[in-house]
Amino acid sequence: MAGEFDLIARHFDWPAPAGTLGVGDDCALLPVASGHRLAITTDLLVEGCHFFSGVDPQALGHKALAVNVSDLAAMGARPLGCLLGLSLPGVDDDWLAGFARGFRALADGVGCPLIGGDTTRSPQGIVISVTAMGEVAVDAELRRSGARPGDDIWVTGTLGAPHVALELLQGRHPSHAALLESLQAMLEWPQPPVAFGTALAGVAHAAIDISDGLLQDLGHVLKASGCAAEIEYSRLPVHERLGVLDAAVVQRAVLNGGDVYQLCFTAAPLAGPVIEALAARHGIRATRVGRVLPGQGVRVSGCPLPLGGDGYAGFDHFG
Ligand code: ADP
Ligand code: MG
Questions:
Q1: Which residues of 178-200 are buried (b: 16+ CB within 10 A; e: fewer)?
Q2: Where are the domains of the chain?
Q3: Are 229 and 205 within 8 A, CB to CB?
């Protein structure tokens, strides 16, 4: 695309760390420690489908990388670098500067430098493709299949806020419209616990990042592991601003709300003190919310409202 090289030089040519070859050659070069493997993940964001056209470009740059480093965290991988594919209808330098600022702040914050990419003209709409790479010691990775009966189930951060923010943006719960101000950042600026996820490698047994809702994402872990689980509703870390909403709204946001980009992981009960120490060291809230059982499905005990019915369709409960 015309001006492609200038565009890259202006917005995306950032220094790579020592030992890494970044933007400017035919390939980037990444060192991987011996005894480790490369963890690779990619996500595609399409204008009008994954984000609104008018969204703050800085928030979009942040989120485009956040959803990828969230996957690295859920594998127990330490970030090494990322690639950015951009397809743009035109060159809007203000938009690009905002996007690059949001992307770079998170890349610097979690240690995931931008080391390459591709830039093309799009006939219609913006398309963003980010690929993130990390390293994880062989056999220490947090696979979905690693959960075992008797494990504790943990959740980082809080639940429910991004889903409620999305509903408020859609005009739902009009009597609580003022809540949006305090919840919008939870939707647009997710903060995956990357260093904490890296530290869980070899400590936890299985992990997943919560992108589609706790029950659905935990369900993937249980299915891959051939296990069941019991969650205690009263233990779930509900975002503190949700208390003013109807119990039904809160329950659905907490159990089924997506866009959280926090971790759900399982670990042996004996690992509890180590996990609490790691959480304290990384400034992460980590909450034990239930346990893994033999069998299949998820039981949620102590729900304010009965589970089931159309709102939870597609989910496989037992009991
Ligand atoms: P090639 O023709 O070999 O694909 P390009 O001319 O597309 O190389 O890109 C030149 C350099 O700029 C490469 O190092 C590439 O990784 C980098 N690059 C291109 N687009 C981006 C982008 N959006 N973000 C970061 N780096 C980019
Ligand atoms: Mg190219």
A1: ebeeebbebbbbbbbbbbbbbbb
A2: 7-137, 144-301
A3: no
Task: Find how far residue 106's CA is from the centre of its chain.
Answer: 13
Ligand 1 pocket test: pick from 1, 4, 12, 23 the residue with the most ligand atoms within 8 Å of its Cβ.
23
Q: What is the largest CA-CA distance in the chain?
A: 61
Q: Where does 7-137 sit in CATH, by number? A: 3.30.1330.10
Identify the bridge partners of residue 114 per DSSP, sorted by sequence position.
82
Ligand 2 centroid–CA 118 distance in Å is 5
Q: Is 26 in the pocket of ligand 1 (CB under 6 A)?
A: yes
Nearest CA to ligand 1 atom 19: 118
| Tokens at 236, concatenated | 């779930």
Confidence of residue 2 (pLDDT cuts 50, 70, 90): low
Task: Write the pLDDT tens digit of every residue in 138-177.
Answer: 999 999 999 999 999 999 999 999 999 999 999 999 999 9
Question: pLDDT, tens digit, for every residue of 16-45?
Answer: 999 999 999 999 999 999 999 999 999 999
Q: Are 291 and 251 in contact (CB under 8 A)?
A: no
Q: Mutation test of ligand 1: which of 8, 20, 103, 127 has the most ligand atoms closer than 8 Å to its C-beta?
A: 8
Among all ligands shown, which has an atom nearest to the Cα of 27? 1
> Which pLDDT score, from 0 to 100, does residue 53 have?
87
144-301: CATH topology is Phosphoribosyl-aminoimidazole Synthetase; Chain A, domain 2 (3.90.650)
Tell me how far apart the alpha carbons of residues 88 and 36 are, in angstroms, rounded to a whole number.
36
Amino acid at 316: D
pLDDT at 3: 78
Helix (H, G, I), strand (E, B) or coil at 96: helix
Using a 10 angstrom Cβ sphere, with 0-12 exposed, 13-18 middle and 19 or more buried, the burial of residue 120 is exposed
Pocket of ligand 1 contains residue 86 by CB under 6 Å: yes
